[in-house]
Hints:
The protein has two domains: 9-196 and 382-450, 3-Layer(aba) Sandwich (D-Maltodextrin-Binding Protein, domain 2), CATH 3.40.190.10; 199-379, D-Maltodextrin-Binding Protein, domain 2 (3-Layer(aba) Sandwich). A hairpin with a 2-residue loop joins strand 1 and strand 2 (15-18). The strands form six sheets. A five-stranded mixed beta sheet has the order 4-3-5-15-8. A three-stranded antiparallel beta sheet has the order 12-9-13. It contains 21 helices and 16 strands. It has helices spanning 26-29, 50-65, 68-72, 88-104, 115-128, 140-148, 156-159, 176-181, 204-207, 210-220, 237-247, 275-287, 304-315, 329-337, 348-354, 394-404, 407-413, 423-426, 435-445, 458-473, 479-495; strands at 9-12, 15-18, 79-85, 107-113, 135-138, 183-184, 187-188, 191-192, 199-203, 254-255, 258-259, 343-346, 367-370, 378-379, 384-386, 449-450. By secondary structure, it is an alpha+beta fold.
Amino acid sequence: xxxxxxxxxxxxxxxxxxxxxxxxxxxxxxxxxxxxxxxxxxxxxxxxxxxxxxxxxxxxxxxxxxxxxxxxxxxxxxxxxxxxxxxxxxxxxxxxxxxxxxxxxxxxxxxxxxxxxxxxxxxxxxxxxxxxxxxxxxxxxxxxxxxxxxxxxxxxxxxxxxxxxxxxxxxxxxxxxxxxxxxxxxxxxxxxxxxxxxxxxxxxxxxxxxxxxxxxxxxxxxxxxxxxxxxxxxxxxxxxxxxxxxxxxxxxxxxxxxxxxxxxxxxxxxxxxxxxxxxxxxxxxxxxxxxxxxxxxxxxxxxxxxxxxxxxxxxxxxxxxxxxxxxxxxxxxxxxxxxxxxxxxxxxxxxxxxxxxxxxxxxxxxxxxxxxxxxxxxxxxxxxxxxxxxxxxxxxxxxxxxxxxxxxxxxxxxxxxxxxxxxxxxxxxxxxxxxxxxxxxxxxxxxxxxxxxxxxxxxxxxxxxxxxxxxxxxxxxxxxxxxxxxxxxxxxxxxx
Length: 496
């Protein structure tokens, strides 16, 4: 889920759409459009007792009879207009979409860009009844309004249609908390797009230095959990704050035995009036035991833990780049990639690029990972595909979304930042060395994932939360004043 204000060259079956320059998306957007046609596996029924053979044969015939090319014949020649964010999942999907086009005869036009602008455009289209897109990426903050206003086409009828449903696709294979976020009042209104629960990252090469470890213990009286391991357990936010204060150094000072030619900051507090400030605040609030607004509409901004979370976030300004007032996740990405940060709040779609030597040579192979401190609870962030009710190509759009969600596609695109949502892909041994995947497995197994309630009011509340948190970060409002303003507005909005 992220908003990129940088840019990428996106290859769309041979057609290049210019989005800008400098985004991590450009790394995998230089693709060869000559993709090989997707090869579908066929299941082979096992031999069973004769008494059950009739029913087994029926089931087997039904499963094996389904074929993407056959299913798509009525829609061959149609064009699916798809909108998504110019970041890893979208770019990864575009690398494979030519295979879908070849197999189905369905044309796919992808418009990739800034997530905020996309969300605004698709909601405007929905409100005015304009039909531009057939398949759109939405973030969880939008699920409530898409469901509440009935802008989205329910998905279950497609899944119940034997002509459209690929029998190998099962919603049970998707991360359960993500499925919950794709529903509005129990009705499935979306298909999975990505799984992006947030976590923390740090420079394990710096932290592993024995001299730094000894100096840290001498100063704080305990061994830092940032010990140089690939996966570390940080049980308290103060320990992250202590590490941020300790590992930041000025240019000319030594860090891990090396004299710096540029400053290294301990972490990054992002306080621009932007979605980042909400997500970074929410990650602290949840893992401290709070929540912004509950499923039954009760606000949590007036709680003591809400104040503690904001105070912690504000304290990080002292250990952040001086431009923190204009900081978003784009700057978090860029500065960590450039070797300017010791630690930073992160996401799976950007972290994939930190491990690529060509993209981030200063940090590739040097990244350590950790769950959020405290109770480790984190939002089950993940975007979804919605088929707008005004679409004239609903069936073709569903076939595309279903194909992108298939195990085969998810297996292949996970290698270049797909942020897969499939449990069976995340469980594969090939990802045992992946830091984010190790964290995701633990989140799922230990029930750390928090499905954000699908409230229509989030659309209005996002603006309020951004405004006041950003004002607090700029010292334009005191923390208590900012949180009280958000709390009062939440009470007002939830009563409407």
